[in-house]
Write a structure and sequence with these properties.
The protein has 376 residues and is mainly beta. Helices cover 1% and strands 44% of the residues. Strands 10, 11, 12, 13 and 14 form a five-stranded antiparallel beta sheet that branches. Strands 1-25-24-23 form a four-stranded antiparallel beta sheet. Strands 2-3-4-5 form a four-stranded antiparallel beta sheet, with no helix packed on it. It is globular. The two termini are 15 Å apart.
Length: 376
């Protein structure tokens, strides 16, 4: 699909802009609402599951998984929370990924944080459209326990049914709450399942190529996206000025070395998914190309871009949020499919707090973006 093609989205005459349809700011007894994911239910409604903190603003504070529902494809949302899953961790549960499995069941992935030495991804299954959930399945066994970070909306299901959980394992856990509590240099790997999540095995560690200056690259918060040629592309937050990329030809078991990319960004995660209506890739990240000095290192602006060549280049860059004090990150992406491109949209849920006062992760926002707007 080329720009000169009259069927290309960029050549449509109709243009509507993004709509902020839900904003969950902190209130008394609920100091933080952050990262979540979407799933469309069988009756057409959309369910948003996110992390509702009640014990403080810290990543380690007590929290449970809360839900909001939309009956109009993300334009409006229910006014009150439902408790999707109560806190079952000594610290909390957080970082949700939702998937419709090949057999029709819904998979709920999340992190169960017991301590700074034990934070692991968990899977539960629903056979009744998220009304109830199975007993938990521990993806990482006790023999490999450690502090694992798996971002929200990160788990993917391949065409052959394999489930891929991209993770960063942070070693050298000190076991107390002072400082960061774990080594910031993550070890990147994927946990894989070929039986619908019943059993899991670990892929090989994804290594980064050496930098010319010899300084180790800080690797954190990986994500994966399947490519048209059957490979997987892994993208990874770093402290080296861009997202790093690696590629797998065996479904996430082994990987090429992580290398710098054109996705210039601070130490902040990116999100990439395929747009079903156009078969292009959508990227959401903090674009720091030619960033002004006062904004360097901050998680603003929030930018979207499209790749028509499987991630080799990114075009149609659009700024979604540009508050210099904003803190935009941990984006979930879901597509509202329709009969026409004019009616097709993407739902984005992301942290959108204020960096002043260390409240950047305290507010969750849902924005509905027409697909055609992405191409203008």
């Amino acid at each position: 699909m080329q720009n000169g093609d009259e069927t290309h989205p960029a050549n449509s005459g109709r243009l509507e802009g993004p709509e902020r349809s839900l904003r969950l700011a902190p209130v008394a007894g609920n100091p933080r609402n952050s990262e979540g994911d979407f799933i469309q239910l069988a009756d057409g409604r959309w369910l948003l599951v996110y992390t509702h903190f009640y014990g403080g603003e810290s990543d380690h504070a007590a929290a449970y998984l809360a839900g909001r529902v939309s009956q109009d494809n993300g334009r409006t949302w229910s006014a009150y929370d439902t408790v999707v899953l109560p806190n079952e961790g000594t610290m909390n549960i957080m970082s949700v990924s939702l998937l419709r499995l090949a057999d029709g069941r819904i998979a709920l992935f999340y992190l169960r944080k017991q301590s700074l030495a034990d934070c692991r991804p968990i899977l539960r299954i629903s056979e009744d459209e998220a009304q109830s959930w199975s007993e938990p399945i521990e993806i990482v066994p006790d023999t490999d326990a450690g502090y694992y970070v798996v971002n929200n909306d990160r788990v993917v299901q391949l065409g052959n049914g394999r489930l891929v959980v991209p993770a960063a394992r942070h070693p050298n856990v000190r076991g107390e709450l002072s400082g960061r509590g774990f080594a910031p240099y993550g070890e990147i790997l994927c946990w894989l399942s070929d039986d619908g999540g019943a059993t899991w095995f670990a892929g090989q560690e994804v290594l980064a190529e050496a930098r010319p200056d010899g300084i180790p690259v800080m690797l954190q918060e990986p994500g994966v996206v399947p490519l048209a040629d059957g490979r997987l592309m892994l993208f990874c937050r770093t402290d080296a000025g861009s997202q790093y990329l690696a590629f797998s030809g065996d479904g996430g078991v082994s990987w090429s070395p992580l290398r710098p990319s054109q996705i210039v960004s601070p130490l902040s995660p990116a999100s990439i998914k395929r747009i079903p209506a156009t078969n292009h890739l959508l990227l959401v990240w903090n674009d720091h190309r030619n960033i002004a000095e006062p904004l360097r290192g901050k998680r603003t602006p929030l930018t979207v871009a499209v790749s028509e060549n499987e991630g080799e280049t990114w075009t149609y860059r659009r700024t979604l949020e540009d508050d210099p004090n904003g803190w935009y990150c941990y984006t979930a992406i879901a597509f509202v499919e329709a009969k026409t491109l004019e009616e097709t949209a993407v739902l984005l849920a992301y942290c959108a707090g204020d960096s002043r006062g260390n409240r950047g992760l305290s507010t969750l926002q849902v924005t509905r973006v027409p697909i055609l707007w992405l191409y203008r």
